[in-house]
Structures are given as C-alpha cells and as structure tokens.
Amino acid sequence: MISLNAQNYEDMLRYSQTQYSGTARTMAMGNAFASLGGDFGSLSINPAGIAVYRSSEFTLTPSIIINSTNSQLQGNKSDESKLSFAPSQIGFVGTYKPMRDVKNGLVSSHFSIGYSRNNNFNYKSMAAARNTDQSLARYFEENTNNSNDNWSQLSQLAYDSYLIDEVDDGMGGSYYSSFMNPGDKVHQTNILDKEGYSGEINLTGGVNISNILMLGASVNIVTMRYKEEAHYYEEYSLDDGQVNSYDVFNRYSVRNYLDASGVGINLKAGFIVKPMQFLRIGAAYHSPTWYNMEEEFGSGIDGLFFNDIDAVGGNSTYAHDYENIFEYKLITPEKLVAGASFVIGKIAIISADYEHINYANGKFKTNSNNYVDIAAIKEASDALEADLTSANNLRAGIEFRLGKQISLRGGYAYQGTPYKIEENDREIISYSAGLGFRNKNYFVDFAYKLSAYDSRYTSYNWDPSYDAELGIPYQTITETKDHFIALTMGWKF
Fold it and tell me: What band does 456 get if pLDDT is binned at 50, 70 and 90?
C-alpha cells in the first residue's frame, strides 16, 4: 500500500491474467473450449469456434460475483466480503449457408458481434494486528534518513503532518524521527477495497470447410476500469498504557487511492480440425493487447497527537497530495492456446485445454518526454523481467446429456503462478458445475464457479540493515475466494 501510483508487476498481472467468464455453459465446463466452439463464450478462447455454429443465435448472460477474503497478520484473523452484479456476456452470431447444402468446400460462413467480460476486480480485505512492535512510522524514518532527500510521496506527507520531524543530533547535524522508542507498540488495521472490470467487444468471423476444418479470427476492443482505495490505521499502544515520548502520535490514518481506465485492442486467430468424428483439435493465438492507460491517484494522512503540534493546529494535522494524473501505454504478453476434445456420441463431451503465457514479456511505455517519467517506466519494465515468469494454465470440462434436453456439466481450471519467487504464489484454482436445458428454438444454462488463490503483501517495506531491531516487515497472508453464479438465456433462429 506504500505507493499506488508507480507502475509495477501487479498492474501488468491485473490486466493480463485473464479470468474468462463467457456463457454459463463455458463457465460450467471450466472454459475448456479451445477445440469445441459452438458457444459464444468460446470465441474469446478460440475464434474458430464460431464456425461450429449451425444456426444464428443471440445470448445474454447476467451474473453475480461474491468475493470473500480471510486475512492473517501476526496471528490475527479478519474476514471481509463484497457482492457485485455484472453482465458476463451479450452477443449475436450470424450463420450464412449456400442456397443448397454442400458437403465439401465452403459449408458455411459466420459473423458475430458481442461483449465478453474477462476479468473481475471486485475485492475487499481487512488485516489487523494488536500490540505489534513494527510501525509504518518506522518506514518513514528509514526512508527519509536513507534516501538522500529523494523521499517517497508518503514520507513527504508524513513529514508535512508531523508524523516525523527533524531532530538535532547534538553534533551539528540532524536526523528524522517518529519519536518512537524501542519497545513501543502499535495497533494496526489495513483495509483494501477494489472494484472494476475488463472486457472486450468481439468482432469475429469464421468459415467451415467441409465440416472438417474451422477457421476463425477476431478483432477485439478491450475496455477496463479499476479503482482501489487502501486505508491504513495505526494507534500508539504500550502494554502499560503509558506514553513515554512527548511528540509521538496518538493515532493516524493513511489513505491511498487509484482510479485507472484504459482502452486497448488485440487480435486473435485459430483453427479447429475434426480428423475423426469423435475427435476435435483446436489451437489459437492471442496477440498482445495494446492499451492506452490513464491513472488518477493521490494520498492523504490524518494525524492526532497526544500534545499540541502548534498553537494554530492544536493536536491534529492533515496533509494530502491529490489529483495526480499520469498517462502511459501498457502492452500485455501474447498467449498461445491449444486443446482437444472427445465427443462420445450424443451422450458426453470431454475436453481439455493448455494455455501458455510469459508475463515477463509485458511492457510499459510512457507518453511523456519527461526524464523522470521515462526512468520510472523503464524501471517498471525491467522489474517485470526480474520478478515474473512463464505460466502454464490448464482447463478441463465434461458434459453429460440426460436425454435430448437436459445436460449436466463440470469443470476444473488451474492458472500457474506468474512469480519467480515461490512464496508469492497466487496460483488460481477453479471448480465449476452447471446444468442446461435446450429446446429447438431456445436454451437456458446455469453455472456456478469457485475460484480460490492465496496472496501475500506487506503494508510497508524497509531495508533491515537500517536498524537490526526492525527485523523483516510482517506479511499479511490472504486467502481469497470468488463465487460466480451465471445464467445464460439464448435464442436460435
């Protein structure tokens, strides 16, 4: 939470680690649709899936998303949750056939337009610790005393709000202090509140050749919006309840906020081949997404002290730095997808996908000619190569048909860790299930998906060599679960 305005690998992951939503059918089958097609949700995975359609179709999928988190900090557990409603997809597919049925050559051509959501950013967590011997105020000390006057934004605000102040060292020099003594303790609370989405408007075309080879390609306009607020609260605490430092804070709060929006474009192309009636093989290439990004960000600190700071301000202070705006370009990594599926008569379908993405290939680029902006963007791009790596993602799905109209479905998905450092894991595992009802002219599908992952973060960071007593900053470990509920309504014509 120290800085929300500097581009880093978390920004790249946020906008490139796709969580496919699609229709209830694709969601229920783990989104393992690289070789299946015939469903609007498959077009974001492999656009060749459009050539599997035999008729025109319109689909609409509203969804409910419930985010829940369990955080642990110094043995203290905290729970939070957040509910949101979202359109998972809406789309039209047009199927065009020659005047007479043909078996060889061009059997049909297809076109579609629609919207698919591919990421959900809604999230809320809280972490708290009581009587801990580490403090964000000590980070402000370390940063101001060891950065050659190149303070962080928050350190400057801490100085402006008197959380730290300049002290005469008695030898003709000075240093910065928070007036905390060894053994002092604090109560901490950190709340992260996020919301937003990313999705793409799909323009897809494809052809069916001899009912054996399906080809497809798409142009996708990607839109995203992301908001984050980080609230950090700290209260001075001693075991005996006594204050032993005249100028130390009573309590203070730090607020960081980020409001980011972007528009991008990417291309996708793929094929599906049916070498045998029961076997389908598919593959697709996803180009990088080229984003134009704009961020508005700011920070503020409120302080309350045991003693008056001055005659005018009394014992409360406030410092803020708002309405900073930064524009830049972001290029996500390209992606390769492959899959195979088995069609067991009219009884069952089994499918599996493999997906490869190298997050280290992402890039930040600046629109500015300012040297500081250029240096910051270069540092962020270099950090991607140092901290991120390739990830291998797996998906699997199954569908059982109970008669002509009812289907039962299940799915599993695994997204490998994007980090080189193993403890920063964030492997995402998803389980899904659903059922569907299909008639000649319409269909209704229902799906539920549970996605779970663990993450770690520190509310502050410092160089332990600055003061051996500080130790390594404590980590917050958060277990996150996202519950997705989707209902698809479709009409064939």
Answer: confident
